Amino acid sequence: MTPASRERLGTKLGKLDRPGTVVWLLLAPTLLYLAAFAIFPLFYSLRLSFTDLTAAAGTGDWVGLRNYGDLLRDPHFWNATKNSAVMVSASLAIQVVLGVALAMFFNLQLRGAWLVRGILVLPMLITPIVVGVMWRALLNPDWGLINWCIAAVGLEPPNWFGSIEMAMPTLILVESWQWTPFVFIIVYARLQALPQEVFEAAIVDGAKPLATFRFVTLPLLMPAIIFAAVFRAVDSFRSFDLIFGLSYGGPARSTTTLSFFSFQNGFQWQNYGYAAAVSYMMLLILAVGTIVLLRFVQIRPGYAK
Amino acid sequence: MGRKNESGREGEPGKGTSGGVNRRQVIKGAGAAGVTAAALPGLMGARQAFAADYDPMKYAGTEINILMTGDENDHRALDDLLPEMKAETGIDLVVSAPALGPLIEKTLQNLKAEQSSFELIEYLGFLTTQQVGGGYFMQLNEFIDDPAETPPDWDFDDFIPAAMRNVGYYDMATGTVGKGTDVYGVPGLHSGSVIYFYRKDLFEEAGLQPASTWDEFMAAAQALHSDDVAGCSFIGANDFSLATVDWYTRFITTGGSLMSGDPNEKNFTPQINSAEGINALQMLIDYLPYAPKNVTQYGFAENVDGFSTGRIAQMIFWSTIAGPVLNEENSLVADVTGTAPVPAGPGHMPSAIQGGWGVGIPANIDPAKRGAAWRALTWVTNKRINRYSIEAYNIDANRTSAFKDPELLEKFPYLEHALSAIENAVTIPTSRIPEFFQMNAMMNVEFNAALIGAQDAKTACDNVQAQWEDVLRKAGHLA
Questions:
Q1: Is A151 on the interface with B (CB under 8 A)?
Q2: CA B402 – CA B407 distance, rounded (Å)
Q3: Between B108, B293, B297, which is nearest A270 by CB?
């Protein structure tokens, strides 16, 4: 190696040695990954939503906002929106209430609690599609274990997925069964980390348990509850696999949510442009919903005010 | 690497003609001219001469990938026989068999790709227009006519004509399935239609004959219904077959006509809320008191289970279930199950939907593999496979010879009715357009809603009519 080439190499290595270069080099794989698998699909599907691409047509023509206009006039879209809203709000309420209650209960440190706690979190470790299929089998009207148990005690088993009235509550029940443990874990972790001094101060001040919970524990838990609620709301809104395995959107579209509606249009009927428009409407609803939730719900603990 | 054929092009079929007349033309021409049995040995001689050109190991060492349905037993039959295929042709056949949804998705991805990863693709008859009509499959006539490429015992004319019209013939000029003589696919790996299943023992006890009309079907349902056995059953769930089997069979056998007009002329108009359409759905609603308690959640599996365990007295169903319910290993009622053509309304003939699959070669496969793909296609659709599929897995055949095989007929008497059903089956008119599945799904949702009491038959049919018209207008099939 000549001195000149050694010097050139040294200059190159010197450039590499700059902090900025190293940072970008280290970030490059992640940025490439994000660009290829997140940003590009995001813009591609946005463009798709302005076309009439179907499997039959092959290459879609630009139709502007027609898909969005059609969506707003489509009663099945509004039905799916309503179903999504019902599912998210009801399952979220159940999960938050039960999750907080369970966290408070396990905070009592009863004997054997560790074992029950471990069992309790198992549902959320199961893939949602498996949960759907499993519950569909359990609730089978002819040979399902749950119906058999209900009939064994002399009661008439509900028609879980055979009636419009029962289908959505059943879906909410299963969704809550699977995801309440998630809220429980988040809230329980926060509960464990709370400073004991404030509780001791409350006791010294003569606060009763309910008042302590209302005015001390709950405000301190609020950041964890809000985090869990937002996370669960978004996840529940996107929920597809559970519905696919459990009710397939029926009966009579009573459990067809926006995710399932988008799937049907895109992957069953190959109306890709329309399905992309549904997805962007979902994104819009999610963005607005999350902003509203974060804006109007108290997220910082009360004592920080 | 395939060897060069007589046309000198690798993987391309030779012309296979003799004096300007190809084998199929000779046979068809002979049939048209009323050639008698006495003349047939001459034709057979011609076939033997053709056979001399045929080299079964021509494509030995080539790997061919087939994409096919995993929802039925076709792939199992094929898997069993792959070693035989390898021994006879030297071709390595790799089978991918996903469920219907992923199959359609994967198929479309491959057909639209620059080059398909699958050299053979199985498609539903209902999708012939979308996939074959889209120009995605190779025309096969040259291969069929080429004695160097087609096994001498493959016997193209043995395929059931109705199955060929459903998946094989396609007229590109008018976009019409079943028209003309251009072949784009071969029936495979099974065909099928709908037949009537009934419990012989229960009918005999009650002094009833198997129903040949819908009134008799209802009367039998009422007479045979008990706490242990439902008088009848049907697909009541939001399922593909609710519309295509139970409603459509009743609709067309009582004088209904699903569509009028032509999609190409933009006047393709549904007749769902016609008197026949509403009546066909009302029939299903009227069966509810005599059907299994949860029939509105009964799809394919629930009905097969219900019938096989003796809890259903009668139903119409895809003939593909005949084997399982008549198989003593799977069924408690194998020895007391009878089959017959579907009932029909007064003055109408039994008829139902044409089901089944086709196999074709995507137009965008590696050109060097075309010959091997055709060789594999002829192997998977040969007579032996067809016979084996019936015998081992009770799959409905797509060859006349399999349906008429004396040994099989003795073992599976239902084959007589299954063949008759296929021969009299009709291709559902909406399968002419790519929106078929979407329209079918709309119908199933609305009809299921009527069955669970959320709306009456007329409202359900009106809803379907409106939704179909909307889809047809958007797709440009209705002005």
A1: no
A2: 10
A3: B108
For residue A8, CA distances in Å to A21, A84, A201, B20 come to 17, 62, 69, 76
Interface check for A159 against chain B (CB to CB < 8 A): the answer is yes
Closest CA of chain B from A263, distance in Å: 11
Chain A, window 183-242: residues with a beta carbon less than 8 angstroms from a chain B beta carbon: none
Asked if A252 lies within 8 A of B454 by C-beta distance, the reply is: yes
Number of domains in chain A: 2
Q: Which residues contact B475 (CB under 8 A, 6 or more apart)?
A: A56, B433, B434, B435
Residue A9 neighbours by CB distance under 10 Å? 11
- How near does any CA of chain A get to the CA of B424, in Å? 29
pTM comes to 0.82
Q: Which domains does chain B have, with CATH numbers?
A: 17-192+355-424 (3.40.190.10), 194-353+435-475 (3.40.190.10)
What ipTM was reported for this prediction? Answer: 0.80
Full residue range of the structural domain in which residue A233 is found: 75-304
pLDDT digits 0-9 by tens, B194-250: 999 999 999 999 999 999 999 999 999 999 999 999 999 999 999 889 999 999 999
Question: Quick one: which of A204, A205, A221 has its CA closest to A213?
Answer: A221
CA distance B216 to chain A (A): 28
Q: Is there a contact between A254 and B454 (Cβ–Cβ < 8 Å)? A: no
One domain for residues A106 and A241 = yes
Residue B313 has phi, psi (to 5 degrees) of -85, -35
Asked, for residue A271, whether it belongs to a domain, the answer is yes
Tell me if B294 and A56 make a contact (CB, 8 A cut-off).
no
Q: Are residues A275 and A200 in the same domain?
A: yes
A158 and A266 fall within a common domain: yes
